[in-house]
């Protein structure tokens, strides 16, 4: 049901979690590592594009530790792509 | 506007004033379209278009409108200062066409003249010598990443009835031990041929196109690139190429914000895996892949990991290319830019329709040297939340998330800052304001995009800046991005929908353009039939097929082409007028309209080094790729949940 403008003043503000995903939910991502050949523990490599770039699957709870890993340059969750008509 | 007055009332009044100038039948179509109700297709129109009859001051100007698929021009009466014309126009453009000053009247109509296919002759592929060394793409592999590939259509079969497809990878299929990367199902030529010998090849194979009466997108695209015309009588660009089709899938994992519904979609991980699969299957053979996927959001600088991945896959071996549709968002009002002053603010107005039943998402990028705070102001003027640099905040209503604002610093890929605003479907429509506050400013410039939403596209308030509307995965270095023009008209106008470059970091994309307006090509589940579709998705495979001809020509001449050489050939041989000769690059046409004839001839004319003599670029990456292939296979043994 749609909110009315008056309802907007009652909205509760809170600091959001980084992700709405449950920690054990499996996610797909593209991972870029700084050290060629490095694979962070507990993630499943699906497709290796080159020594620094691969697609992977892991529980969403691993996201924070992956991003904190100095040998991981970047983690990009799989993005939904729509058909261009 | 009073904060207590329901916004729907005022907005509806405004809309109906505009519509009052229209034929009531067209008004109804417009209103139904706004509410997501599609018109039923007829034998002469698709679900998205309507047949019209118009009174115009100039039939020529009418036919020049890129929205118009011309029909008949009726004989002018003696002394009359107007002409009666017919045509088909997209439902979404009815009001725009009616607003043209030379259009005196516009009414729903029927009985139209058919429009003939123009792609192959327009790009001069029919001028290539029969039996020439480009050989219709013989020796090259055309990969199609799309939805609904009809392997049974005669245009994809040889004279003896066997299939031209080397493989189909249905990423939605039930996995088998040999499934690439552990998911989906691959059907190779022998299996496809066996299925073709049965009364119901789709059921036999366990894969087939949908029952959409307009035909599936992937079949149409595949035909433009590589159909041989054996069934329909109209051939594509590379009729002798081999084909690999990947029916791309999406996981059920939301990447952010609201779920996308109601349209075909894949996702970025499966796209990369599809490209790697096709290049691996092609092996040492030249290979060009067509992609018709994208979204509106993203940094538009090529630094996303999916774009980095595509660039690297292309560069791993010579004779590889990927063509991507530019996108169809030019007139959707989905891009805004501006400059935030130090200590001041800049308001971005985000217009959400009252009937919008889905969530909305805005993606904003600014320099990593700056720090902006972002404030969200509701249509009634209420300031709901302010988020400082580096913070993420949400608003909830009875425990349900309704607003999420993320002000993220230092993106790991491009080191810029990124603001994401997500409004859930329960929020009222109207003009929302995203106010940017300059906390620390050295540059101050920003760009924002509204994410695509086929169930109710929101937009920035006009006047709109329609530059940088190319798709989110179309900004890489090595891809060839393709705009669309209407080849049926003498002036070859750019298609009204064809998205514009450049990229946010100034790359000149799209590179080229091709016919994408009212293109006739194979209709799935028809065996021999055709259907008509429009979009940059129809332009991109024309370039894909042309690149296949270029690669086949190079193969026949013993040459090897790097991606920079392939791109250079396509760009240098593109034709002008339109676009204008100066400047060299046009933000919608790119460097020009492709010419298959000139591109193939350029292979012979250019001083491209033969394989092995140019550098180590041919051998080393191939070895690296084969090693990666083995690793990928080893990594892939899993079931997909």
- Secondary-structure element sequence of chain A? HEEEEHEE
Biggest β-sheet description of chain B: 8 strands, mixed
Figure out the total of helices of chain A.
2
Helicity level of chain A, as a percent range?
10-25%
Low-confidence stretches of chain B: 1-18, 41-45, 110-116, 252-263, 609-641
The oligomeric status of these chains comes to heterodimer
Strand order of the largest sheet of chain B: 7-6-8-5-10-12-24-25
Question: Whole-Å distance between the termini of chain B?
Answer: 50 Å
Radius of gyration of chain A: 18 Å
Task: Summarize the structure in words.
The complex is a heterodimer of chains A (85) and B (641). In chain A, β3 and β4 (53-59) form a beta hairpin. Chain A has helices at residues 5-8, 63-68; strands at residues 12-15, 26-33, 44-48, 53-59, 72-77, 80-83. Chain A has 2 helices and 6 strands; from the N terminus they run αββββαββ. The relative contact order of chain A is 0.25. With 85 residues, chain A is mainly beta. With 641 residues, chain B is of the alpha+beta class. Helix content of chain B is 23%, strand content 24%. Chain B has 14 helices and 27 strands. In chain B, the strands form 5 sheets. In chain B, strands 7-6-8-5-10-12-24-25 form an 8-stranded mixed β-sheet, with helices on both faces. In chain B, α8 runs parallel beside α11 and α11 packs parallel to α13 (596-605). Chain B starts with 6 loop residues before the first helix and ends in a 6-residue tail after the last helix. The interface between A and B is large, with 51 and 85 residues. β6 (80-83) of chain A pairs antiparallel with β11 of chain B.
